[in-house]
Amino acid sequence: MENFTYHNPTRIRFGRGQIAAVDRELPADAKVMLLAGGGSIKRNGVYDQVRRALGRRTVFEFFGVEANPDYDTLMKAVGLCRREKADWILAVGGGSVLDGAKFVAAAVPFAGEPWDILARQARITQSLPIGTVLTLPATGSEANDSAVISRRSIREKLAFINPLVFPRFSILDPETTFSLPARQVANGIGDAFCHVVEQYLTYPADAALQDRFAESIMQVLIEEGTKTLAQPTDYAARANLVWAATWGLNGAIGLGVPQDWATHMIGHELTALHGIDHARTLAIVLPSLLQVQREGKRAKLLQYGARVWNLHEGSEDVRIDAVIAATRKFFESLGIPTRLANYGVKADSAAEVARRLQARGMVRLGERGDITPAVVEKILRLAA
Asked: Is the overall model pTM greater than 0.90, yes or no?
């Protein structure tokens, strides 16, 4: 196990009725920008709960943050914050809204060109404080310091990480997610599952606790994911999904271990080029990546097969074939197709993705740095 330092400053308030705690978390004199998506929170009752909790505080509202939040949209929110001198951001929504809030929080006091936060990884020295009310379990953004932002005008999708954008507090009430469409719930399950895989399916690092944590999260996502899709208002199942998704990317299972993230880097390009849902790009890429990288990942693939999928019979290669097939079948069981052709994308797109990664200098992806643009193209052609 490698050395590590771990600090997660986000206070989690979990369970029914916790939105009321927003009142206790925010200063009484806070000037708050409420950041949200397309307006579903007004239809499902979450907005009314949040406004009651905000009480008599000064509040400015910004609706319209998209899935895969767009830079140009978020810059309008930055302008509102600056004009009104907001000193807190309250993000109410799923991971896209939360990621958007992190960018806005960093961009408002930023002296330079805000796009540099993403494109040049410009240094961030201050940020507005953020609180969140989560309405879609998926990204873990409610308890981490990373965000992914799209810029559709130039077909880019980039990430930044900075400890200053950790949410100060996050409200996780599973009932706020009951009204989600099945597609969004399925995407959330698939996204969270891939977050765990990226931190786990690499090579052994003698990190027994991290491995067992990761395996348990994947098992919960498999078992409770199926339940919650079948019974969306089953509180117990949805609560387990919400909590598992948070643990999938709150930093804990990645401590002291090698991490991959090539599936995400490739997936981001597919979203930028073709507009495919983020989670669905991961489901396209992951099974083929595991096939191409099976030798370097052999030991962990066998461990994953035995501990998560209970695959013990046959030779090592037979078991690896079976575990990759089980992973693909899991995504398909959620209603997430796993081939580029399912989304009308031709195999020739593989070369364009490889070219874009090359242009970014992303020429040594994966835990061993052995996923070159040529390997990326091979992975995507296999995913056709």
From this structure: yes
